[in-house]
Amino acid sequence: MCARPKVTFHNVSKRYTLQQKKLDKILDLLGIKSKSKSFYALKDISFTVDEGETIGVIGINGSGKSTLSNILAQVVPPTTGEIEVNGETSLIAIAVGLNNNLTGLENIELKCLMQGIKKEEIKRITPLIIDFADLGDFINQPVKTFSSGMKSRLGFAISAHTDPDIMVIDEALSVGDQTFYEKCLKKMNEFKSQGKTIFYISHSVSQIRSFCDKTMWIHYGELLEFGPTKEVLKNYSDFIKFFNALSEEEKVKYKKEKMAVRQKEYVVKPISTSRSKKVKKEKTNRKSMELILLVMFFFISTMLMFFDNGVAKGIQFIKQIDMSKDESQVKVEKTSKEAVSDKVEAINKVGYVLTEKESVFQSKELKDEMVTVGFSDQVRVNNKIGDVLEVSVNDQLGYVKEENIYIPQAPFEKIDFNLAGYLDALPASFVGSYQYYLAFINSEQQEIESKIRGKTGEELDEQGNKHLVFGSIRYKLKSDHLSEGIIVNEFDPQKVNMDELIKNAAIISKDNKIFSIFSNDYEYIFNLNNQSVTIIAGE
Fold first, then answer.
1. Of 255, 381, 433, 450, whose CB has the highest number of CB atoms within 10 Å?
2. What is the span of the domain harbouring residue 17?
3. pLDDT tens across 365-410, in order?
């Protein structure tokens, strides 16, 4: 019986943009070509690993091993290529997934929640984790007081007891003592006997030789070799001898040549979609229209220069054309417009706001602002009166411009969207504990403040809702002091595939800068105007 593939990479690359100035970042965000350079941490990687295999990963510093481990663990998404992972992954690296402001015990709960483990199971395995980590009374101390070895022990202990299908171990055992290493090795051999798949990333050739079935050699972002461990390690050791024999000048030259290759762009055939063709066509039409208007303006301006008081005569001529209408015709047009504006059409559907900030007025003439609503906020659309909608907001009747409200014909279909694939674009303070932060949506203010440390203040938004601020993260509270959702600032769209992200959007704002994704558990609102992500619990 053949083992089934557990992990498959097909032409996977990870590219980062090296921006030297803030202006370059702004230009890239606006889609304007800047002088920023690209750097390929990984380039065109392809391999298949079967169920139950133990794979060693070696390479000199800066070759892309940690980037590979983050992609394997689905912490960061690839820039291009296809990945298939059949099972749950767990990344074990020094301090990864640990919140420095939480205690060791609180971090156990955090990482278990990130794995989707229920609270009853967490209570059962917590004593086992504490015993394995062997931290004594330090388990109740903040992780920021831990040494690197203590962090590694805690991280490994947690991951080893959450029963992952695929373990990705990135240098996590390099800082531990020999006693703890032997304990970990015994645990990994247990996983191996159970048929689990393990990726072991290390500089230790002897550890990889004794533990791994196959080994892949990552060399300056490329998969140089992948095969039986004994063969790959021999070739790798030969390279190390060759490199160490070089003079310092030769070593610098070699590294520069390899770095130049990693910064060189290569052509990737884009995926053709009907949406991209439509956008391209709209941009072309818009540019053509702008050019025509510019030519017309230049022509009229030039012609008027040849006449005395040319501009004044032109304005007078336009007025004459406008006044040449028959008075009865003007009266009929006015009556017709009034009739259209007074026509009432019943709607009785849910609508969604398409602007970042939208005013709801007390009168259908759109006067006397009543309340302000934000993008993706729901309003009950009662009637359409001309180009104005009569809506209900918080049990209040008001009026808003029709063009700023989207009324779907059917309820949105919720999709299987995973935020983990886009964590690379969010601040580190959120990434390390994001599942823990999400766990307190729909929680009371008192519970949030008692469980999450580092509160920096409170603020009120334009609607009068209170926000609990924790640095770049804030909880938005409802009137009953329950958290409605969280807002994460410092979102960097340059670090993710925005086209792929927008494909999942159910609602896109009028300026194409804000979009909303409805998943099975949450609604995600990505705002490029203020570079934030709002996460609201699904209904």
1. 433
2. 1-22+37-87+167-176+199-269
3. 998 888 888 898 889 999 999 889 999 988 789 999 999 999 988 7
DSSP code per residue over 135-152: -GGGGGSBGGGS-HHHHH
Q: What tens digit of pLDDT does each residue of 352-364 get?
A: 999 998 999 999 8
Residue 388's pLDDT is 92
Same domain (yes/no): 305, 392? no
| 197 vs 48: CA distance, rounded Å | 12
Contact (Cβ atoms closer than 8 angstroms) between residue 8 and residue 48? yes
Task: Report the pLDDT value the prediction gives residue 324, as an integer from 0 to 100.
Answer: 44
Between strands 388-393 and 378-385, the pairing is antiparallel
pTM: 0.49
Residues 171 and 49 in one domain: yes
Q: Provide the token pair at 25.
A: 């970042």
Q: Which of 406, 435, 453 is the last residue of a domain?
A: 406
Residue with tokens 């794995």: 115
Q: What is the CATH number of the domain that holds 402?
A: 2.30.30.40
Q: Is residue 147 part of a domain?
A: no
Residue 190: strand, helix, or coil: helix
226, 250, 269 - which closes a domain: 269
DSSP characters over 220-257: TTEEEEEEEHHHHHHHHHHHHHHHHTS-HHHHHHHHHH
Six-digit token pair at 412? Answer: 């949105």
511 and 376, same structural domain?
no
- Identify whether 108 is part of a domain: no
User: Would residue 161 count as lying in a domain?
Assistant: no
140 Cβ contact partners less than 8 Å away, ≥ 6 residues apart: 103, 104, 105
CA distance 181 to 184: 5
- Encode pLDDT of 247-294 as tens digits: 888 888 888 888 777 766 554 443 333 333 333 344 445 545 555 655
Counting the structural domains of the chain, the total is 4
- Determine the Cα–Cα distance for residues 416 and 425; give it in Å rounded to an integer: 20
497, 526: one domain = yes
Instruction: Say if residue 260 is in the same domain as residue 281.
Output: no
Find the range with the poorest average confidence among 133-137, 241-245, 462-466.
462-466
Beta partners for 5? 50
- H/E stretch holding 106 reads helix 104-114
8 Å CB contact between 78 and 14: yes
Dig out the tokens for 232 from the structure.
């790959």
DSSP string for 447-464: HHHHHS----EEEE-TT-
pLDDT digits 0-9 by tens, 105-143: 988 888 888 777 888 889 899 999 998 888 888 898 888
Backbone angles phi, psi at 419, to 5 degrees: -65, -20
Collect all residues with Cβ–Cβ distance below 8 Å to 312 and sequence separation of at least 6.
none
Nearest to 58 by CA among 166, 181, 165, 211: 211
Element housing 376 (H / E) = none
